[in-house]
Amino acid sequence: MPAIPPWTLALATALLFAGLDIAAVLTAGVERAPLHNPIGLAALAWVVGPLEWLKAPGEARQLPVFQAYALAKTVVAALAVACAAVACATRPARRRTSLLAVQMACALALDSIPFHLLVAVQLAMLLPLRQALAWLAIQYLLGAGVDLLLVLDLSQRLAQPPRWPLLGYLCAERVVVVGGFALVGRLVLYERRTRQALAAAHAQVLATQSLLADTVRGAERMRIARDLHDMVGHHLTALNLHLDLALRQAGSTAPPALPTARDVSHDLLAQVRSVVTSTREDRAIDLAQALRMLCAGLPGLKVDLRIDAEAARHPAPAAHALFCCIQEAVTNTLRHAQAGCLTIVLEAREGMTVARVADDGRGKPCATEGNGLRGMRERLADLGGALSYRHGGGDGFALEMRLPHAWGGA
Question: What CA dihedral angle connects 215, 216, 218 and 222, to 10 degrees?
Fold first, then answer.
């Protein structure tokens, strides 16, 4: 079953909520339109003045007020719909937070619990848990603050004491936003991350199989070379010795075919030795193919893979170390970076094989080195290599792995 992009779900849900909200206003008409909300009060203030309608309540239900209210509500709802779709499709963290802030402002202006619920679900899906909880608390407090202002405004306009039970009901009603955050948002996030993890694991398995198959082929070539050396080579050497002995014993009476047979045997032995030598030396593994298979199956991540021809093939220890390090870097990007683009460069430079992995996610300037980075550093150090990295808040994370030319090249 193909995965549905989150932005399409957000767009469809926002359109549904906006359509129902606007339809309710149009159905209520001029006389029944619910004006006691931020947009309605703004429309009243714009058309008849903030206090004039108290003196002449009938004027507050004039057609211009209703038209201004319906138009403003449509514009704000359309803005919320657009922000909901773009927030789920964009990758940069700052742009996402800006779009979520605009959505939250639209939900407050609309005084709409469904739009608040949509914002809470996106908070759970798009932001790290701690940041999402902070935003949820701000959203709830701002919503409760708007409810308080509306209750106080209503009591002033009606010249009555504030209706505190009404405020309590409105605040309790907003608990559904917290429920949407905890249930729907986190559930959708878990399902999406599970899909991504499964796809990434599948890509890693295929890449590892490719690397293993190349290693097995190299080992099989080595076995064949050893058998040629131990069996065919030894027999040819013995044959050459016997032919030389036969030539010496025959002396001048040796038939012409005997020297020819000796020369052919010597040439054949030289060719066998050449094949064995080239087979032993050709033990490099094609790391480029494994990396292409790894990057081809990464979900939701644009990968820019650049591999120099000189750095494509490596001996088995170096290929295994580099592949494991790059695979660990890719896994960390998928799990933690929330990146949209990943760049992998493998090149030969200054007598070294250099691999660089960089993303455009949310880098942490004070992140501590965990088991993953330590394991990568240890793998490279065992081969005389080194690991370096940089990270900054919002500027992504970059790794650079170096191996000496003795290990890095074929």
Answer: 140
